[in-house]
Predict the 3D structure of the following.
Amino acid sequence: LAAGAETEIGEKGINLSGGQKQRVAVARAMYAGADVYVLDDPLSAVDVHVGATMFGDAIAGAMKSGEGGGHGGGAVLLATNQLQYLSRPETSRVVYLENGRIGAQGTFEAVRAASPGLRALLEDFESRAAAQAAQASAARNGSGEGGRASRTPSLDLSGTDLAAQQARASFARD
């Protein structure tokens, strides 16, 4: 935003993109200094790199530590379809929902071991990530688009079993 925290936002965020709206919403939550933060897929409208920064600096960082005006010590409940955050060290507990019911809960490794559905989703996610990384590497090495380097594409999970099953992986920080 041009003026940082002092940027004026039009009615209903008319002058903001979807990703900017989500960044503003997370920033507002961060400054609230709450005991509990419930976030419903706040990273869905931002690219992979911005999402990783938001997760590390705001969701797992400032909300937990109290930086940025919050008092810290808050629990964060994050509902997301973005599997890359499940195995992060900041994630203390995973709750895997399958068909609207808790399929498994505990540490990432325990949930992964106990849930064939989550294992299948993770294997699909990892194979797609590897394929996209290989494509990006080939493009950087000159075998794509006239030898020009391209940006690493974000991982698109639309149309996968994840979207079809409407599986939601949630995790909470203690």
Summary: The radius of gyration is 18 Å. Residues 145-174 have pLDDT under 50 and may be disordered.
